């Protein structure tokens, strides 16, 4: 029997493996070691520095939730910025909104875009959409140059290790909120409640300094550490504003109205942490 | 650095490891290979045939959700049966209800009880409670002998492998429902939506033949495969009956009113599967 495993060790006390049929591509880019693997169960997977970024089988929980929660809250977003997100999964969801006039993707690594276009056709090649503008550069400078510019910002990043650590800093959140247009909303990849409790609480404290209605929410993603990931919703507008917004055309595979509300229900131990009780 | 891992391989395409400080106990019982290990992050863990049953850090999601959803729906349950559950975690939650007069635990393996009493003191030694009645026997015969007897039944079992496979059969569900008193409710350990979709759908079909208001719900448990587990609520009484029941004395660490409702919100792909769409 094939016994090749991709074993992910993001935490010193927990690891996870998925069985690999074959490695479809791998390359040391200027920024990271990039692999696309075909797995036994989860379809193709994008792996950066040994960490699973997405799989065909369960990425919908991530991409639908990071995107639609702020997009629906804003209602008719016109300008959207995606920080990271070179795989195109969030971009695909953003482009479902007829109101969107421009979607800027600020991705540091062109190779993530190139390989994703080749190996994740289900994302529908959103980089070929005329509304998409791909900037291959670091997001910090771009955020500084564009205050008050975006109705929605998604921070769709890797984990806070190495070059991505700054994307979880107070400074990043300050720049991100400054780049929002009035009435805008952001959502950020914000780690695992059981494993990363202290970091999440710190980011929530930052978000509360900067905006009136930040809130943490969660999605099930079996191939992520601990089986899921959370997001920080950051806005002066409550997330509940999105509950009555009609969905854009296209199919949802994770989000529905019950899941939208449920995502903000935090396990009691974690609710207490976030409330400072 | 200590590099000892407990690696769990319950599915052929997915595995998970937790770092182990030391093995506190191990024994081949008449039924299974039992281990208690001290882990780096999750506290002590009970492991049966290499599969993590519970850890001190994240068992609350499992035990509070399997127990309180049916208990609160019934309101003032007096007689409760736990099938399996020799670790005492569910029993501890059941005994929080002053209405409970008798809690029968039908556990096949006395050793699970013995080691859990020693290594999981946070469960409060519920087997010493005078309302507890421990029966070391197979549950099938006991269910057959006791029709119409229990206000709440919890099927708190291992996975459907080997001897436990029968506990996921139509026959088991028929006997379990028959053992409920009028107005009673059951909840069963019912696997992972992404990994065990077909089995869950089959059990749901059985439950719909037997009762009016079955429903599937989910809890986050990072140390379980895919990071969580679901439960089948099985009753003629809707689970929503429990939303306004006051909690019993004692502390909740996972359940709160928002989580109670949120647990029944199924990801859209899975909602469609369950609805037969």
Task: Figure out the total of helices of chain A.
Answer: 8
End-to-end Cα distance of chain A: 51 Å
Any idea how many domains of chain A? 2
Largest sheet of chain A: 7 strands, mixed
Percent of residues in beta strands of chain A: 25-35%
User: What structural class do you assign from the helix and strand content of chain A?
Assistant: alpha/beta
SSE ordering of chain A: EEEEEHEHEHEHEHEHEEHH
Largest interface: A-B, 49 and 49 residues
Report strand order across the widest sheet of chain A: 8-7-6-9-10-12-11
Radius of gyration based on Cα positions of chain A: 18 Å
What's the mean pLDDT score of chain A? 97
CATH architect. name of the largest domain in chain A: 3-Layer(aba) Sandwich
Give the proportion of residues in helices of chain A. Answer: 25-40%
| Quaternary class | homodimer
Number of strands of chain A: 12
Task: Kindly describe this structure.
The structure is a homodimer of 277-residue chains. Chain A is α/β, with parallel strands linked by helices. Chain A has 2 domains: 51 residues, Spermidine Synthase, Chain: A, domain 2 (Roll), CATH 2.30.140; 217 residues, Rossmann fold (3-Layer(aba) Sandwich). Chain A is built from 8 helices and 12 strands. The first copy, chain A, has a 7-stranded mixed β-sheet with strand order 8-7-6-9-10-12-11, with helices on both faces. Chain A has a 5-stranded antiparallel β-sheet with strand order 1-2-3-4-5. In chain A, a hairpin with a 2-residue loop joins strand 1 and strand 2. Chain A is globular and about 55 Å long. The interface between A and B is large, with 49 and 49 residues.
